[in-house]
Write a structure and sequence with these properties.
Chain lengths: 113, 111
């Protein structure tokens, strides 16, 4: 199974700044996903990071707020831009397909002050 | 909107007892998965059951799937303190690449 390294593990950021989260996988994977988990809530899919093309965003998420890079088959970044307290969440990257188990990174806990 | 809805939202039982969590979903699926999350960390995959399967076992875990009722249950037998975690069901939904997660059940095992 894939081993996923996600960093930072946590950060405290000021309102109006941005945070970039990195996700590194120990093997080449086709699909990488970014999820958000708001406090006490379930996971919501933000977008699918596609290698060589733009990310596919879910309803309610836009590229200007959550730009994603996927330069190769083992790495992706998610940036959360123009931070507000409502962005305080855990952000998780995962790899896999919907027909097989997803493997998750340990998440990035973001607190916006 | 969430595809999966777990109940109960929270469950507290004594160590050694069995814990049952339920999940309902709305649209047709190809498979349903259960995940565990400890203390806000990454999720760990527990079990995947395909739409043509009715029951699946893995160690102390037993998952059932009733596609006619669009529901699934996760049974953890002989619970241990280490089973304390949040449990989520997740389904593949048409048109989405990623899984859709339910709201989760927070399970507390009292020693």
């Amino acid at each position: 199974s894939a081993v996923i390294s996600q960093k930072p593990s946590r950060d405290i950021c000021q309102r109006g700044t941005s945070l970039t989260i990195q996700c590194q996988v120990d093997s080449q994977v086709t699909m990488m996903f970014w999820y958000r988990q708001q406090p006490g809530q379930s996971l919501t899919l933000i977008a699918t990071a596609n290698q060589g093309s733009e990310a596919t965003y879910e309803s309610g998420f836009v590229i200007d707020k959550f730009p994603i890079s996927r330069p190769n088959l083992t790495f992706s970044t998610l940036t959360v831009s123009n931070l507000s307290p409502e962005d305080s969440s855990i952000y998780l990257c995962s790899v896999g397909t919907v027909n097989s188990p997803l493997h998750f990174g340990n998440g990035t806990r973001l607190t916006v002050t | 909107s969430q595809q999966g809805e777990e109940d109960p939202q929270a469950l507290s039982i004594q160590e050694g007892e069995n814990a049952t969590m339920n999940c309902s979903y709305k649209t047709s699926i190809n498979n349903l998965q259960w995940y565990r999350q400890n203390s806000g960390r990454g999720l760990v995959h527990l079990i995947l059951i395909r739409s043509n399967e009715r029951e699946k076992h893995s160690g102390r875990l037993r998952v059932t799937l009733d596609t006619s009722k669009k529901s699934s249950s996760l049974l953890i037998t002989a619970s241990r303190a280490a089973d304390t975690a949040s449990y989520f069901c997740a389904t593949d939904s048409s048109g989405a690449d990623g899984l859709t997660f339910g709201k989760g059940t927070h399970l507390i095992i009292q020693p």
